[in-house]
Write a structure and sequence with these properties.
Order of helices and strands: EEHEEEHHEEEHEEEEHEHEEEHE
Number of helices: 7
Largest sheet: 9 strands, mixed
CATH architecture of the largest domain: Alpha-Beta Barrel
Helix content: 25-40%
CATH superfamily of the largest domain: D-amino Acid Aminotransferase, subunit A, domain 2
Number of strands: 17
Number of domains: 2
Shape: globular
Bound molecules: pyridoxal-5'-phosphate
Radius of gyration: 19 Å
Length: 306
């Protein structure tokens, strides 16, 4: 994934590439105190045409929508950030990896409402990542979290904001402390919401079901990709409520996310899912093809350096 050894990490910060060691965060940075930033998680993959970034435009669109909700003014357009991302990959010698654009309120007083007088900083950071962030195993063991998914009436779930992740941190730390890989959170109606950083799909009798923002989830770009890849293959997909009972009656369950990719669930607490996972396996393969630019029907999902 790293084509050649690069001595120093380079990141794009406020309009130019810089050495990561030289990017300073001021002590009264608003985002440091209050979590007032928004971000994206994007993947670059090696493809037959060189480094390709998966659904880059859709991620950047969501980034701008998230910023707008919190009054963050990103002083760059999609084209500039696209160039920044490819420049950052290249400056670090990465042919694949995990890309983190982050926009946040900087330093200007301690007011909770900084929008009108606080500078916005924009960072494009990069980490090596291959395969699923959830690990190399064939699937994950999850627990039903004692923590409830934050209601969108408190914080809008479709916005990918730094502070929203305190909810996920509580749930994942609890799950890992108890020996699980991941947590499933229910919303305030008792329906299944999502994982701490993934959407969820249930397979029953060959049909797929996943939920949407009405269940207080982030509308995942991987989720949307898997819905389209399934429909391309003639698999029925329903978008709607998922109840806890649906999980225990499912033939297969899997999680989706940019970092997690398509990851089967093996167990929920002490309940083991069936070990045959034909639909999940088919969609895992379809997803790998798509991110590598090898699905002709979805070739426009991958963007290449110009
Ligand atoms: C809470 C949450 N749900 C779902 C997802 C999946 O979203 P995506 O597929 O766009 O990465 C993520 C990952 O960003 C997430 O943090």
């Amino acid at each position: 994934m790293i084509a050649r050894a690069i001595a120093r990490e380079r990141m794009w910060f406020d309009g130019a590439l810089a050495d990561a060691d030289e990017i300073a965060v001021r002590p009264f940075t608003h985002a440091l105190h209050y979590g007032s930033g928004v971000f994206e998680g994007i993947r670059a993959y090696e493809t037959s045409r060189g480094t390709g970034v998966f659904r880059l435009r859709d991620h950047l669109k969501r980034f701008f929508v998230s910023a707008e909700v919190y009054g963050l003014n990103i002083p760059y357009d999609i084209k500039t950030l696209t160039t920044a991302i490819f420049d950052t990959l290249q400056a670090n010698g990465f042919t694949s990896g995990y890309i983190r654009p982050l926009a946040y309120f900087g330093e200007k007083g301690i007011s909770l409402a900084p929008a009108f007088n606080c500078p916005t900083h924009v960072l494009v950071a990069l980490k090596p990542l291959s395969g699923s962030l959830l690990g190399e195993a064939e699937g994950v063991r999850v627990t039903m979290s004692p923590w409830q998914k934050t209601s969108s009436r408190s914080m809008p779930s479709t916005v990918k904001a730094c502070g929203h992740y305190m909810n996920s941190i509580l749930a994942l730390q609890d799950a890992q402390r108890r020996g699980f890989d991941e947590a499933i959170l229910l919303n305030d109606r008792g329906d299944v919401a999502e994982g701490t950083g993934e959407n969820i799909f249930v397979v029953k009798n060959g049909r797929l079901r996943t939920n949407d923002a009405s269940a207080d989830v982030l509308e995942g770009i991987t989720q949307d990709s898997v819905v389209q890849l399934a429909r391309d293959r003639g698999i029925d997909v329903e978008i709607g409520r998922i109840t806890p009972a649906d999980l225990f009656e499912a033939d297969e369950i899997f999680l989706t996310g940019t970092a997690a990719e398509v990851m089967p669930i093996l167990r929920i607490d002490d309940y083991a899912l069936p070990s045959a996972r034909p639909v999940t396996t088919q969609l895992q393969h379809a997803y790998v093809q798509a991110v590598r630019g090898a699905d002709p029907r979805r070739a426009d999902w991958v963007e290449y350096a110009r």
